Amino acid sequence: MPLFQIPDNELIFPPLHKAEPDGLLAIGGDLSMERLLLAYRSGIFPWYNRKPILWWSPDPRFVLFPSELKVSNSMKQLLKKSPFRISVNENFAGVISNCSSIEREGQDGSWITKDMMAAYLRLHKAGYALSVECWQNEELVGGLYGVKIGRCFFGESMFAKVSNASKAAFITFIRQYENELAMVDCQVHTHHLASLGARFISRITFTDIVQRNL
What we know:
Elements: E1 4-6, E2 24-28, H1 33-41, E3 45-46, E4 54-56, E5 61-64, H2 73-80, E6 85-88, H3 92-101, H4 114-125, E7 129-136, E8 139-149, E9 152-160, H5 165-177, E10 183-187, H6 191-194, E11 199-201, H7 203-212
């Protein structure tokens, strides 16, 4: 079945059930703020290395519910020692830049292109995208960023320059915002997030939660 080509001048996406088995839903369009917000509100996100833009809606979806956060005993002991300072929205540009440049096993290059960085910086300035920073001796050593709409946080990427930095940022963020979040979208499976309590739910369940918490 041919993929849906998004018209340049229309803010539309096809029905989610039209996605390929791997979750690929559509191609084309742009990274305007309006299109990105429509995508997240519809259970869709962009992920591509080079144009055209690829839009995804996997089934099942990997998510974390704040009440199900798992913190290992070793992480509990580490956090008690307070080796890091965790902040929110102190350096969004620094976080997304590090997420873009960090080397990742099994990946050739980054999907966080200059266009993607510019698009999420616009979302950040508009109050939709936020970053969580992990500092050690006032050096940015880890963090994460994503899009928050209503009571849903759509995680995009994280990085760590020292051991446990991204975990510390993530755990602290979830604890701090637990009462404001119904769900954290992790998009696709990683062992890192699974160890923190993330699990799969169906796409139908995911979109229902999103719609009820916008």
